[in-house]
Amino acid sequence: MPSLRSLVELVRAPAALSVPGDVVAGAAAGGVLGPRTAGLAAASVCLYWSGMAANDWADRELDAVERPERPIPSGRITPPQALGVAAGLTAAGVGLAALAGGRRALAVALPLAGAVWAYDLRAKHTAAGPAVMAACRGLDVLLGAARGRLARALPAALTVAAHTYTVTALSRREVSGADRALPAATLAGTAAVAFSAAVSRRAPGPAAGRTPRGVGTGARLASRVAAAVPGALAAWYAAGYGAAQVRAAADPSAARVRAAVGAGITGLPPLQGALAARAGAPATGVVVAAIAPLARRLARKVSAT
Hints:
Layout: H1 4-11, H2 20-30, H3 36-58, H4 60-66, H5 79-123, H6 129-144, H7 150-171, H8 181-199, H9 217-250, H10 254-266, H11 268-278, H12 282-289, H13 291-299
């Protein structure tokens, strides 16, 4: 049996901290943020981990040359074991989605699982790779909104998908390095994503920064603070991920590109938090964003890429 450490490396366990925020952002936008969201988040984590295991199984021959330290080429996990882990986690993810969200969640989880496997087995090394991975994360956001108003969650899903596209485009050069144009282009994309998260339309209710007449000073202050949260979290996201891309643009070596990819993965929670806050859940958004420092710390011990 493989060791726990080897399994943690296989599924990039700490990187899954970037996943629950997808579901939370979707649930907030769809108007269904509640107890069932936790179950859908657990399903999302299982599907993410399954994709990581399937990725290493599919890339086992390439990794033997480029990344011999990974669990499969190093002999710590056999290919059948990795495939079994991937299949088992996929089944668990789809099952949890059905339990937590019923048929509507299952209707999103099944194509999400299919997109994850399609990326790993077919699309990853093609020009369609970034778009397919972006679709995976967009569907992940919609999974959170499955029991509510899916249409209202589409802007959040597209924003997370756009971010994912930039990370995936960079990841294709994390072994060989890139030219300066690639991180410069993804940096521009990151700026657009941050702007979108900061100004996207809120859920119906009082206008941002306004409260009805007769409401006390404390309530007005709370309303103004809540209105400032999306912009602050979007700026946090842009600063963290953007700085790594600036360094990669100055020196597009494999190490710098790989660091930018890691920053894009572990720095996603502030973006998810901004989207949740903009949908009317500022406190939840702050909690989601607060995961980012922990994700970065754990990524120093187990690579997120």
